[in-house]
Amino acid sequence: MKNLFDLTGKVALMTGASKGMGKSMAHALAAHGAQVVISSRKQDQLDAAAQEINDAVGATRVHAVAANAGRPEDQQALVDKTHALLGPVDILVGNAGVNIFYGPISEIPDGAYEKTMQVNVQANLWLARLVAPDMIARGGGSMMFTSSIGAFHPSETLGVYGMSKLALIGLVRNLAQEYGPRGIRANAICPGLVRTDFAKALWDNPEAEARANSQIPLRRLGEPDDFGGAAVFLGSDASSYVTGQALTICGGSNMWA
Ligand SMILES: NC(=O)c1ccc[n+]([C@@H]2O[C@H](COP(=O)([O-])OP(=O)(O)OC[C@H]3O[C@@H](n4cnc5c(N)ncnc54)[C@H](OP(=O)(O)O)[C@@H]3O)[C@@H](O)[C@H]2O)c1
């Protein structure tokens, strides 16, 4: 039987991949044979991440292209450069996300609301539209987008962030519906609290550790490397009949009900 997780010959395009979960996902995709373009806003961090992964896998499989996910012209250039470097895209990982306001939704400034929705939701629609023709021409592909367990609960401090991540799941379901007949799958990954720079204010305190150690079934916070397996699963034939889903990866802190 063939290796269901083999990604040899596949081209992956990722946003938000210079550090944190994105970098771990890029490493896992490359380790399973994919050629990967990683993107984020800062070229120097991207170059360092690409070098680190290439050294680890012992081959030049990861390429660094700076792009701001919130700018359509950057996204077009990112896809053009990916085509020039590696050819058509088989796997899309929309992982870039922002959380720029902490407080009640009644107080969020319009600009912060718009930016959150644009980067976390609309930017992923732009990207999906840009790579879908590649996937259609090849008879299929896989798209995955990083949502959050914040999508499933209201919050008095991260409300608009949670709304944006719920809207992203809505986008995923619609992409799955619209592109499914062309062989394209679309899924969301919903992390719990993960020890990255992005969420440092939420986990870097004794109370958060104590809560994790007493309430999360697996008794720990998430680590970036907990996400490589999901990226390989969703990007590969191992998930050939999985689409339109929100895969929750949270140590059991959020169970289906
Ligand atoms: N950590 C958690 O607890 C948690 C929980 C649930 C969901 N998430 C989601 O997980 C995703 C990844 O976050 P992380 O925790 O791994 O964060 P991280 O370690 O801080 O990494 C974030 C990545 O996104 C890039 N980025 C940020 N804004 C961008 C933009 N406008 N355009 C392109 N790249 C951008 C960053 O690089 P540059 O700064 O160079 O652009 C970096 O590569 C996000 O969508 C986040 O909402 C995180």
Notes on the structure:
The protein has helices at 20-31, 43-57, 72-86, 110-138, 159-179, 200-203, 206-215, 228-235, and strands at residues 11-15, 35-38, 62-64, 91-94, 141-146, 184-191, 246-249. The protein has one domain: Rossmann fold (3-Layer(aba) Sandwich). The radius of gyration is 17 Å and the shape is globular. Helix 2 (43-57) links the parallel strand 2 (35-38) and strand 3 (62-64). It has a 7-stranded parallel beta sheet with strand order 3-2-1-4-5-6-7, with helices on both faces. Helices cover 44% and strands 13% of the residues. Helix 1 crosses helix 8, helix 3 packs parallel to helix 4 and helix 4 (110-138) runs parallel beside helix 5 (159-179). The longest helix has 29 residues, at 110-138. With 257 residues, it is α/β, with parallel strands linked by helices. The mean pLDDT is 97. The chain has 8 helices and 7 strands; from the N terminus they run E-H-E-H-E-H-E-H-E-H-E-H-H-H-E. It binds NADP nicotinamide-adenine-dinucleotide phosphate. NADP nicotinamide-adenine-dinucleotide phosphate binds at residues 15-22, 40-42, 45, 68-70, 95-98, 119, 146, 148, 191, 193-194, 196-199.
